[in-house]
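Example 3.2
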Amino acid sequence: ANTGLVSSNLAGRQKFELDFSTNSSFSACLDERMAAAAAEDEAERFRNDRANGLIGQIMANDPKCTALRCEGNFLGDKRVAAIVSSVAQNRVVTGLHFNFCSVTDESIPLFAQMLGRNSVVSHIDLAGNEVTDVGVELLCTALAKNRTIKNLLLFHNKIKDKGADFFAKLLKLNTPLETLTLSDNRITTTGATVLADALKV
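Structure, written as tokens:
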């Protein structure tokens, strides 16, 4: 498997990327360094978790906060749901980045509610999660009434042909959606054909 480790904000360190793809073992020195980095990362993650409770208040009052980038933090449904709920009434944030945050269909109803109440967010990144056709149906129902979402990233999820069909029906409604990424899902030629037909002028 092609595995990458991306870590940010580790005790004052600059961002770095460590790719150890296809390696089966490490030297003792590298093992020690990786263990130390992992421990530090867990401590940082714990601090992030405690900070999440304040995100709603911060976003509601900070006009400089135009994008919320949570990618790669494996937040899980409960924390993601809390953050999305706080965004619903926000009038500043335009971008939500929850790629590789362990999001499942459980969180999608709150995204749908947010899309129905928020008229500012234009970019949503849910790539690298576990969204299925069930979640896609909810998103498409909400997007059919939303006039601001232009970019929706859903690559590397668990979407199948049924989900592609939901998106095909959405695209026929002439929504403001400009970018839809569905690569690395479970869509077959059947689903791809339905999407292609929906894009015909």
